Amino acid sequence: MTMCQKEVTAKGSFRYGPGDYQLAIELVASGRVQVKKLISGVVNFDQAEDAFKKVKQGQVVKILIAGPNEPVQAKLDLVLNANGQENGIHTENGCC
Length: 96
Hints:
The chain is of the alpha/beta class and 96 residues long. The protein has a domain at 36-96. The protein is built from 4 helices and 4 strands. A 4-stranded mixed β-sheet has the order 2-1-3-4, with helices on both faces. Strand 1 (39-43), helix 3 and strand 2 form a beta-alpha-beta unit. The longest helix is centred in the N-terminal third of the chain and has 11 residues, at 20-30. It is extended, with a radius of gyration of 18 Å. Its cofactor is Zn(2+).
């Protein structure tokens, strides 16, 4: 009732249905989906707001955000190939 009195609008979102999450895990684990290719860059925590704007504007697919006490390199290491080659991933300072 309070929402009606204050004229508040609530919006929800739907990400995936039953079984979708397990299927996604299986696709990634089997190598059929290459998630590294979806990562457009890695930024420091203080650049998170700008990163979200870029995603919303469709400029990038996915940007990893390093925690406030985590160096960008730590996140970047997660997306490197086994042989240490980068995949066109960009940091806030340009291409790694």
